[in-house]
């Protein structure tokens, strides 16, 4: 009877009260559905203000447009980079369950601070007429600026914790030892991106309209209420969640193995001193929790290290000179798994650089074009709605049409491997940049033919041409983000899955940072060969944006070949790439 009770437990998992999680009672798609509902609310709260923040900073805090753009870029980049901290804390010390609740409370405090500042006039700089020279605009400063940045970076810290804990918390609800569990987990990642897009859709339409027409205090207020509501919605799933027990700092293990490998390689010139066929220690025999053992025995040999990255095998010695450098086979193999996914991670940064460029320049392009659809005049700032709508439509189509068809054709469990998904995203981003270059060439041709090259008037060409590049970009984002999140989650060691999943967000942050650097480099190089740089001036018609897009297309193509080099050599840690 006791054995039957033990077999019903999810080894390595607990419920919300820290009691052993039970099979049939904890986990599954119902538990994950609460995570999906929370993601709609969480992303709505984050993007409701981030998407329109430049306007708030310039109009009400009286920063210049360039300063406002830099503040927003730094804010967004920091939020996504902090996902790495969130993932690390979830793996090492907190559970994903507790970290989400803590992070949501921090984001709530940040949004509440911003709401109060937007509502009380004395906490903002005095209003001024932007066109008036009699009343100069006073930029926010002192304690008021401190309040603004305290609110912003509390939000960034909360968002980082949520992004680092919520996706792995949902993915942990499925039994990866069964084909059904793995298929459900794959569907979860697809629908996570779908829900993320639904939250973004509401944010860039309804909440942005509220901010522009009813006041920013209402926009911040809606975001504050939304993140507050997400907490009880998340708590509703508490009785059925299963949560992975933190396994201690994975970073410490990585440094320990790397230090031991370097030390032993330097001290020992004789390869025979590295024990390759050593008797496994008790910790080596138990590679993962019992619930995952059948799925991972083929991944990590219990007695001898693999031949990949043989340099790290030197970290294993029967009698290490320094006890602190005593490493097990399991630890060495886990470090190898992490190092092998890093090249794939670096290849995704260029894709996110393309996303960053199109979210800025495309809006400026649309502002010079005819933005009417029938009698409806669409504000250029609403352009981000196009990729969001495409993702909302594509995500269910991908999950219910493309994947089942691919499974039938390939006769495999997954249909399309993670690396194929990421690769498809990279190809679509190349096409998106080529389309963007062609559309810009057409736009400038219309400007020349209409005699409006030096005019600020709208060009006689519909802004819907810009939607073409957003179609490919939205598709690229869907394929790559879903592929990245599932790839990093499944291929990383179980002790650092939250941290690995956070690499998806870190790639996004680095793409935004790299885009700023790339524009500066292009302008500096081109200004040395001609009087004006490619991307400078007040009139977009004088930019050489089409050349910049072709450059991005070329860089993306080179990056894709770089990706193929690593993807073709990658060996999945599972017996089948699931």
UniProtKB/TrEMBL annotation:
GO MF annotation, one: transmembrane transporter activity
Keyword set, alphabetical order: Membrane, Transmembrane, Transmembrane helix
Domain of life: Eukaryota
Keyword Transmembrane attached: yes
Organism phylogeny: Eukaryota, Viridiplantae, Streptophyta, Embryophyta, Tracheophyta
Protein name, UniProt field: Nitrate transporter 1:2 isoform 2
SUPFAM superfamilies (alphabetical): MFS general substrate transporter
Gene Ontology annotations for the cellular component aspect, listed alphabetically: membrane
Subcellular location: Membrane
Species assigned in the record: Theobroma cacao (Cacao)
């Amino acid at each position: 009877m006791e054995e039957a009770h033990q077999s019903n437990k999810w080894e390595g998992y607990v419920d919300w009260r820290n009691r052993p999680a039970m099979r049939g009672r904890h986990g599954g798609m119902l538990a994950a559905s609460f995570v999906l509902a929370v993601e709609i609310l969480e992303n709505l709260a984050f993007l409701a203000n981030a998407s329109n923040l430049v306007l708030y900073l310039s109009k009400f805090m009286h920063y210049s447009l360039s300063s406002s753009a830099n503040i927003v870029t730094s804010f967004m980049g920091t939020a996504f980079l902090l996902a790495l901290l969130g993932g690390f804390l979830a793996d090492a010390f907190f559970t994903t369950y507790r970290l989400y609740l803590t992070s949501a409370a921090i984001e709530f405090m940040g949004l509440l601070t911003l709401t109060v500042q937007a509502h009380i006039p004395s906490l903002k700089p005095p209003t001024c007429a932007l066109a008036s020279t009699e009343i100069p605009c006073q930029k926010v400063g002192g304690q008021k600026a401190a309040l603004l940045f305290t609110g912003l970076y509390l939000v960034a810290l909360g968002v980082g914790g949520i992004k680092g804990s919520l996706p792995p918390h949902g993915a942990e609800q499925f039994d990866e030892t069964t084909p059904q569990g793995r298929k459900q987990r794959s569907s979860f990642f697809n629908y996570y991106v779908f829900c993320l897009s639904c939250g973004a859709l509401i944010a860039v339409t309804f909440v942005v309209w509220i901010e522009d027409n009813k006041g920013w205090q209402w926009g911040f207020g809606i975001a504050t209420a939304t993140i507050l509501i997400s907490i009880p919605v998340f708590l509703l799933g508490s009785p059925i969640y299963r949560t992975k027990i933190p396994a201690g700092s994975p970073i410490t293990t990585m440094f320990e193995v790397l230090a031991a490998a370097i030390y032993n390689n330097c001290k020992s010139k004789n390869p025979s001193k590295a024990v390759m066929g050593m008797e496994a220690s008790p910790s080596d025999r138990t590679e993962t929790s019992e619930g995952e053992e059948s799925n991972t025995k083929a991944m990590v040999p219990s007695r001898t290290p693999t031949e990949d990255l043989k340099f790290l095998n030197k970290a294993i010695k029967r009698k290490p000179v320094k006890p602190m450098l005593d490493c097990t086979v399991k630890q060495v193999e886990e470090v190898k798994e992490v190092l092998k996914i890093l090249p794939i991670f670096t290849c995704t940064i260029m894709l996110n650089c393309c996303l960053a460029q199109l979210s800025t320049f495309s809006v400026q392009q649309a502002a010079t074009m005819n933005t009417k659809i029938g009698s409806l005049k669409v504000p250029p700032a609403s352009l981000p709605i196009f990729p969001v709508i495409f993702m909302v439509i594509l995500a269910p189509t991908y999950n219910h049409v493309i994947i089942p068809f691919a499974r039938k054709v390939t006769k495999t469990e997954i249909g399309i491997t993670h690396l194929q998904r990421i690769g498809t995203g990279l190809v679509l981003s190349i096409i998106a940049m080529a389309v963007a270059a062609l559309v810009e060439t057409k736009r400038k041709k219309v400007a020349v033919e209409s005699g409006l090259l030096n005019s600020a008037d709208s060009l006689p060409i519909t802004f819907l041409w810009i939607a073409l590049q957003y179609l490919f970009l939205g598709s690229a984002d869907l394929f790559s983000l879903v592929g990245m999140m599932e790839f990093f989650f499944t291929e990383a060691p179980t002790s650092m899955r939250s941290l690995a999943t956070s690499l998806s967000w870190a790639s996004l942050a680095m793409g935004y940072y790299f885009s700023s650097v790339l524009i500066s480099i292009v302008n500096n190089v081109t200004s040395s060969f001609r009087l004006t740089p490619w991307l400078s001036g007040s009139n977009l018609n004088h930019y050489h944006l089409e050349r910049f897009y072709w450059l991005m297309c070329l860089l993306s193509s080179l990056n894709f070949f770089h990706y193929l080099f690593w993807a073709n050599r990658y060996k999945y840690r599972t017996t089948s790439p699931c």
